[in-house]
Amino acid sequence: MKTALITGANKGIGLEVAKQLAQQGYYVYMGSRDLKNGVAAVEKLRAEGIENVAAIVLDVTDQQSVDAARIEIGNKTDVLDVLINNAGINGIQFNGDTPLMHTATDTSVEVFKEVYEVNVFGVIRVTQAFLDLLRNSPAPRIVMVSSSQGSLNLHSDPTFVHYKFKGAVYQSSKSALNMYTIVLAYELRDTAFKVNAVSPGSTKTDFNHHLGRGSVEDAGKRIVKYALIDKDGPSGRFFSEDMGTATGEIPW
Fold it and tell me: Is 174 a catalytic residue?
């Protein structure tokens, strides 16, 4: 049975991705900062008849937690076929249903550090920790859950539909994640790895106070699609299939 690890899998899009991958026959390790929340998520899936899942304590901001998760999974399998770096935060405070966007002129460095610790450094920690298990797979796949909000090209274009929606912290963190994706894919270009950044699109979850438009089911499908691509599939590309392009690919 193929194996997958998903960070931030105890709720929202991560939980849905775990469900869909398990339904595809994968044994899914569901990363969660808190074991109680992870176990509750596993129990929820098992109540739906999905047994091939397990909770793993994994705090992407804590190197010791990441290392412990690597040891725990490594004790159970020598191979990891899919890594989905899903855990992320936006750091945004809300006034009712109105997000208080971070500005480039006033937002403190501490806020940037908090968000980057999860969205960028956490991805690097997890990816590097599990690369050895991924290398043992005949067809390793890494999906970085990004956002079209991180596209430098789109957000420098005044005609872009979301041009006026600017948030200095979250958007720049996803831009940094995108560059890490490009470099990682390049370094692994002569291997069987496929590494892509995927935006799940605007989705109704706790992440955005349920202000998104799309369903977690659709968001999950977009991510799982690139976890399952074959040897002829893309690598080092950026996809946001809710943006209406013919291929789903969008500019960095």
Answer: yes
